[in-house]
Amino acid sequence: MGLFIILMGVQGAGKGVQAQFISNHYGIPHISTGDLFRAMKTREDELARRIQQIMASGQLVSDEVTNEVLRDRLEQPDAANGVILDGYPRNAAQADWLAEYLKSQGETVTAVIMLKLDLYTAFKRAFGRVKSADSDKVYNLFFDNEAIEWHYEDHPQEEFPPRVVATEKATGKSLVRRPDDANAGAIIKRIDTYLETTMPLIEYYRQAGLLSEVDAEQSIADVSEAIKGIIEKASQDS
Ligand code: AMP
Description:
2 domains; 5-stranded parallel β-sheet; 19% strand; globular
């Protein structure tokens, strides 16, 4: 049996980091449907163009198209022994499709891992995230006061909300937010969408006896350890 893992959690719960850990540790590809769609940007055909429009509008791509794109990816040879899915399924119809597809391959979902994070912390992780333009090191305004200095600077005419001015203490480099993290309303919208679409799925997988929850407020290493325990137990049981 392969290792077919679904990773769920609100934005900021550390899904990307943990998906990479699972991928490296178990030698299975990390498949994000959002990444698959983004990779189609360079294609010129009608379907690719339609997908870019849908993504830009913030809506979900249809189940039919999403399932076909995923099927293509699952049929690649590197996915034969399992995959770590991130951003899929997004609703019960996709979960049903996946179950059927895996059944047709003589496989099943091994485990569904939910990274649990309270929503206020999720908000602070996104809203506080800053980095310098020339480094990948990410800091957080609310959690990294040892390494960074920051304050709010009022707009001279107070026509705009105060601006964050942040610097890395060690180098004096200035740190900035990602544009989509600077908009508190957009972060709340993403959290709301997550609650609407993902919560019913969590119940779906809980009832199927496949769901395990991990406290995502622990350190990255502790979350990875907990995930390893879940996957090892689930693969023994299946
Ligand atoms: P993500 O990177 O997972 O946030 O996905 C970015 C965008 O891709 C979403 O806003 C949707 O438009 C689309 N997308 C990704 N995964 C799915 C999915 N499973 N079903 C439908 N649309 C998706």
